[in-house]
Amino acid sequence: MRIDIVSVVPEILHGSFSNFLIKRAINKGLIDIHIHDLRLYGLGKRKKVDDYPYGGGSGMVIRIEPVYQCFSELLSKRDYDEKIFMTPEGNLFSQKNAKSLTEKKNIIILCGRYKGIDQRIRDHLISKEISIGKYILSGGELAAAVVVESIVRLLPGVIQNQDSILTDSFQKKSFVAPPIYTRPSIYKGWAVPEILLSGHHKKIKDWFYKKSMQVKKRRLDS
Ligand code: ADE
């Protein structure tokens, strides 16, 4: 799978993908991530990518030409299954969306900045708009990093223990992760529930199920 990310602040993205999981996926050839600096496609000597909004108002708007140039260059080399724009106005991203994106071969992710992007980019160049939550970030870069990480960890071969993916809280529709513990069994007098140390697999399984239901109920009540 190949992901091309387009941004005016690519340095934010470079930092986001230096973690172990993504590096392993890259080294194994499971994912190919390319970060593009939109400024390289900017206009004139000053490589301008933004301008004042028509009709007035505060803030700058990303112009269509640099985005069109960058996209054209990418599209001339390969087909893309999705051209995604990260925006708080997009469809709320879910685990189901992450899973469906793992089935794509090539995707482009465009990160917004400033007041927004020229509407014609959304109308003519974008196939999907994604929001990672009902809050406003200064740009789409961190949101894109969230989407990429959620995709990459689902690619077969990235996480060695596939069991851990299957038991992720949101992977199965109704499953809520129960509390988990590791060593030491007692820390500052705070003890791990005895049942987990009992070695009694059936009882432990029942306990996890019961706890999972309690967490679920608590979440629904709150
Ligand atoms: N850009 C700014 N805020 C965002 C959000 N919540 N989701 C996706 N992209 C964004």
Features:
Trp Operon Repressor, Chain A; alpha/beta; binds adenine; 8 helices; Alpha/beta knot; 3-stranded mixed beta sheet; 5-stranded parallel beta sheet; 2 domains; 222 residues
CATH homologous superfamily caption of the largest domain:
SPOUT methyltransferase, trefoil knot domain
Radius of gyration: 22 Å
| Net shape | elongated
In total, the number of domains comes to 2
User: What is the CATH class designation of the largest domain?
Assistant: Alpha Beta
Count the DSSP helices: 8
CATH level-3 fold name of the largest domain: Alpha/beta knot
Largest β sheet strand count, sense and barrel closure: 5 strands, parallel
Q: Return residue spans where pLDDT drops below 50 for at least 5 consecutive residues.
A: none
Order of helices and strands: EHHEEEHEHEEHEHHEEH
How much helix, percentage-wise, in residues?
25-40%
The small-molecule ligands in this entry are: adenine
- Class per helix and strand makeup: alpha/beta
Give the termini distance in whole angstroms: 39 Å
In order across it, which strands form the biggest sheet? 2-1-6-5-8
CATH architecture of the largest domain: 3-Layer(aba) Sandwich
